[in-house]
Write a structure and sequence with these properties.
The protein has 430 residues and is of the alpha/beta class. The protein contains 15 helices and 14 strands. The strands form three sheets. An eight-stranded parallel sheet has the order 11-10-9-8-7-6-13-12.
Length: 430
């Protein structure tokens, strides 16, 4: 009898190897051969591209380059490397003995492979630790606005907002994200003093009554400074630290955690025919610049989370591509936040208003979690949490971690979605 087996999950691979009597000492070797990492390298010289391709072929891997590089008619080329972690280990060993143009690829190849196979490090916020290897975390949305696209006005009064915040906590939110400024398409900015008028009464009474960290969704440094003094510990900045030049400095001074999001344009005009030449490259490059802004201002790198900005300067096809290729954001090595909740791309696919987009939201959340999202920002905490709990039970079953030669391989807690290769991008190599 012959059959196909699905062994992407380490626990299943381990069980099958045991059934046929493979020496346990060899299990990690087979684990290192059972995963494929796909890495894109941009702007390689013809010599570097040829060396990389030949080195990959020698190790049993492969590398796609421009068809005219080998003949010398093309002087530069991007490349896509297809290799197992074990092959990448061997490729790096061989590249170290090649000319400098190829040898200098090694540190980033190692770094990217480690990032794709391991979750971000746990983040401690006061007495709370966000552990990204144990489950997919949930950020509950609390809008204290009159005009947000889904729940605008429902929690505008402090009493209603506090009650909803307590409910989100009871339903299992790991973080509560409070926003006092709608950033729906076409919205206008809200003055900092008005944001604070809406935020502070809620923050002062809700904060002491919940044990989970509180995030505030704002692009204003003045608002951030005030709410951080009142107990908020995370600033969720949709502009990626761009709209207010003082924001990064304020967050650094308070040692706050910061979510930087990718946005094309500003909320007022962002949905007026946004165009991308290379969507994921532009998003990753934009988030890399946001990271650099924060680090330059003094924010510690582990304190920065990244968000691809679904719905912020993106058409339907852009949002779907982000979900399909979300794992590429692991190139940056930061916790990934995704906010698909009841957004218009779901409505476009299902032809439904925000009030009827729950099933679409849950589906989008499950896909995002499978693709590497660490935190999901949602309105419907309890329902999404139930769906994620089943998914996490499937993905995060305990087993002995595998350790390969030179890289820490993924245990089941970090195993990739079945049948899906990891894809990461290595930028600007010469």
């Amino acid at each position: 009898m012959m059959r196909i087996v699905s062994l992407d999950h380490y626990q299943d691979l381990q069980a099958e190897l045991a059934r046929i009597g493979v020496d346990p000492a060899a299990w990690n070797i087979f684990a290192a051969k059972s995963r494929v990492v796909t890495i894109k390298l941009e702007g390689l010289s013809a010599a570097t591209a040829n060396i990389l391709k030949q080195t990959a072929l020698i190790t049993g891997a492969d590398c796609a380059i421009h068809r005219q590089v080998i003949s010398g008619r093309k002087k530069k080329s991007d490349a896509i490397l297809f290799a197992t972690p074990r092959s990448i280990d061997e490729i790096c060993l061989r590249l170290e003995h090649q000319p400098a143009c190829a040898a200098r690829l090694v540190p980033e190849l190692k770094m990217l492979t480690s990032r794709v196979l391991n979750p971000p490090a746990p983040v401690k916020i006061k007495k709370t630790t966000l552990n990204f290897s144990q489950k997919t975390l949930i950020m509950g949305i609390l809008n204290v606005t009159p005009d947000s696209f889904y729940d605008g006005g429902r929690f505008f009064s402090p009493a209603a907002a506090i009650e909803q915040g307590l409910k989100l906590s009871e339903e299992g939110a790991d973080i509560i994200d409070i926003g006092a400024e709608s950033t729906r398409p076409g919205s206008n900015p809200v003055a900092p003093q008005e944001q604070l008028r809406r935020l502070l009464p809620v923050l002062r009474k809700l904060g002491p009554r919940v044990r989970v960290p509180i995030s505030v969704d704002t692009t204003s440094a003045r608002v951030a400074e005030a709410v951080l003094k009142e107990g908020a510990t995370i600033i969720n900045d949709i502009s990626g630290l761009k709209f207010d030049p003082k924001m990064a400095e304020v967050c650094a001074r308070a040692n706050a955690k910061v979510i930087v999001m990718h946005i094309k344009g500003k909320p007022k005009t962002m949905q007026k025919n946004p165009v991308y030449k290379d969507l994921m490259q532009e998003i990753i490059a934009g988030l890399a610049r946001a990271l650099a802004r924060g680090i330059k201002a003094g924010i510690r790198r582990p304190n920065i989370f990244i968000d691809p900005g679904i719905g912020f300067g993106k058409k339907l096809e852009h949002n779907l591509e982000i979900l399909r290729r979300l794992e590429e954001l692991r190139s940056l090595g930061q916790p990934i936040v995704v906010g698909p909740s009841r957004k218009s791309f779901i409505g476009s696919v299902l032809n439904l208003p925000p009030e009827e987009r729950l099933e679409g939201t849950i589906t989008a959340c499950l896909i995002a979690a499978l693709k590497g999202a660490n935190i999901l920002r949602v309105h419907d905490v309890l329902k999404v949490k139930r769906a994620l709990s089943l998914l996490d039970a499937l993905r995060l079953a305990p087993a002995t971690p595998a350790v390969g030669q030179g890289f820490s391989l993924a245990s089941p807690s970090e195993s990739k979605p079945e049948g899906l290769p990891y894809i990461v991008t290595l930028f600007s190599q010469k």
